[in-house]
Amino acid sequence: MRNAIAAELMKLRRSRALPLLLIVCLAPPAVKLLRALLAPAAGGVSWQSFLASGQELTVFSLLIAVLLSANHVFTQEYRFRTAAAVFTVQTGRTAIFTAKIITLFLMIPAMFLLSALAQLLCGAAAVPGALPRELLGTFLLVQLWYAAAFSLLAVAAGLVAVLVKRFTPAAVITLGYYILLFPFHTKTLYVCFFMTPVVIAARLFGSADYIFAFDYRDITAGLPQAAVFLLALGAASFAAGLCIYRRADA
């Protein structure tokens, strides 16, 4: 298992995905910093407004990166036509599939950690005064929630990639599902589930600076229900994906 994880991390490090992920993590906080410096709000910039405003835009970019990364991790053997060689090595398919999941579970929290650090550093440059301790705790809780929730959603995206075996169709399906059902995320947590983490994060922040914050008030489900739903979705996607992967042809 350790060798399989090392192999997946090595393939990810050698791919073009890593520099793109770095840009996705750092660009939104940098844009928020430039906006705060060049076009400050009438009442000035506060830590609350800097961390909460535009949070959805930051998460949208990270969400797309998560979906595409999951598709990349599960389809690269087919893209580079090395599936036949991979499936004949001594390492079993269960270990390979699990290693891919673990790779995503390592990569996605790292992405949100880097994004959180960038947001705090850019906020320190844009906002006068110290960051309130209570707001820092809420911000860290939100980032932890994002990392856990999107790690589970990556498993669902990986299931699509295992089914179609090609990066472009998998990306079209996952992003198409997200875009087509996006309007329903203001009514329920369970239809456009890629937006479930954002709805809960808005609740945790208690912020009206979220773009759809007013519409989120119509949703009665909270963090426990969302966590159970995403855990169930992740577990079901893992079980189905493993079953399909073990029977896949090269």
Protein architecture, described:
The structure is a single chain. This protein is an all-alpha fold. The chain has one domain (about 1-245). The chain has helices at about 1-15, 15-40, 45-50, 55-80, 85, 95-125, 135-165, 165-180, 195-205, 215, 225-245.
Instruction: Please give the number of β-strands.
Output: 0
SSE sequence, one letter per element: HHHHHHHHHHH
**Radius of gyration, rounded?**
19 Å
Task: Give the proportion of residues in helices.
Answer: over 70%
The low-confidence runs, each spanning 5 or more residues with pLDDT under 50, are none
Mean pLDDT: 82
CA-to-CA gap between the ends?
21 Å
Main sheet specs: none
Beta content: under 5%
Looking at how many chains there are and whether they match, the oligomeric state comes to single chain
**Class derived from helix and strand content:** mainly alpha
Count of individual domains = 1
* Principal-axes shape call: globular
Question: What's a concise summary of this model?
Answer:
Helices cover 75% and strands 0% of the residues.
What's the SSE blueprint?
Elements: H1 2-14, H2 17-38, H3 47-52, H4 55-79, H5 83-86, H6 93-126, H7 133-164, H8 167-180, H9 196-205, H10 213-216, H11 223-246
Helix pairs in contact: 1-6, 2-4, 2-6, 4-6, 4-7, 4-8, 6-7, 6-11, 7-8, 7-9, 7-11
What are its keywords?
mainly alpha, 11 helices, 0% strand
